[in-house]
């Protein structure tokens, strides 16, 4: 089933604010093998001018993917989420995420297209503080394999 | 540190075992079963359990950030997930090698091209980071 093109440009109400925890940053840094002490050692982070531990660059996916999942299960969009794979990913940063940040993630559907029998959805997740300071935008291309053309 | 076009960053090699996939699942909140359940991975046509694309992407950027030691200078990072990293159920796991080259500098921004290779296959496409330079 092709995706509903009326959804291009649609912005969803933001998910509840996400409080970035210091230990979550440590867990994530260890999981992605990040060794810069700015991610692990509070004193090192503060010595370099940060309020608290700094999240590794791809930490933003924790917020953006969870927010996007709530959107893509919208039945009117017509995406078969069981067939979705992550096609590509891009982050644009205003600053790194730091422990203690309270972040709000707003998801917009940027593009919908079909190619080679796949439905392809581009979502944009704008991540900002409660005061509206932009932190990072996450662009995700989600590909639903073999769902366009009814031959799935 | 002076950054010039053509400069190569120190290459890193990562070992990815099943335990690393479980650790990343917990740390990221991505519990998709194809990253830890061999039966379901094979049911959907994969050769075996595969690593999260975001784990590969997250490991790869360490080549840039651990070298730069200044996370505020990272402006963007993106890639395409072109090939899966298959992670066997053994002690050796998969080996991922990441290299990076400064591919261009313009208007105070350097572009860095990353290459992530597993089993002689490039697993991330068009992997590029941009950083602020003086």
Structure overview:
The complex is a heterodimer of chains A (152) and B (134). Chain A has 152 residues and is α+β, with helices and mostly antiparallel strands. Chain A is built from three helices and five strands. In chain A, strands 1-3-4-5-2 form a five-stranded antiparallel beta sheet, with helices on one face. In chain A, 38% of the residues are buried. With 134 residues, chain B is of the alpha+beta class. Chain B has a single domain (8-132), classed as Thiol Ester Dehydrase, Chain A (Roll), CATH 3.10.129. Helix content of chain B is 25%, strand content 38%. Chain B is built from three helices and six strands, in the order βαααβββββ. In chain B, strands 1, 2, 3, 4, 5 and 6 form a six-stranded antiparallel beta sheet that branches. Chain B is elongated, with a radius of gyration of 16 Å. Classes of the chains: A alpha+beta (152), B alpha+beta (134). The A-B interface holds A 24, 27-28, 30-36, 38, 48, 54, 56-58, 61-62, 65-66, 85-93, 95-96, 139 and B 14, 20, 23-24, 26-30, 53-55, 57-59, 61-62, 65-66, 69-72, 74-81, 125-126.
Highest-level CATH class of the domain at 5-20 and 56-144 in chain A: Alpha Beta
Percent strand of chain A equals: 25-35%
Strand content of chain B: 35-45%
Largest interface: A-B, 32 and 33 residues
How would you describe the shape of chain B? elongated
Distance between the termini of chain B: 10 Å
Number of helices of chain B: 3
Secondary-structure element order of chain A, as H and E?
Answer: EHHHEEEE
CATH class of chain B: Alpha Beta
Helix-strand topology string of chain B: EHHHEEEEE
- The counted number of beta strands of chain A is 5
How would you state the average pLDDT of chain B, rounded?
A: 96
**What is the count of helical runs of chain A?**
3
Annotation, overall tally of beta strands of chain B:
6
Classify the helix fraction of chain B into a percent range: 10-25%
Second-tier CATH architecture of chain B? Roll
Uncertain residue segments of chain B: none
Mean pLDDT of chain A: 91
According to CATH, the homologous superfamily of the domain at 5-20 and 56-144 in chain A is Hotdog Thioesterase
Which regions of chain A contain 5 or more consecutive residues with pLDDT less than 50?
Answer: none
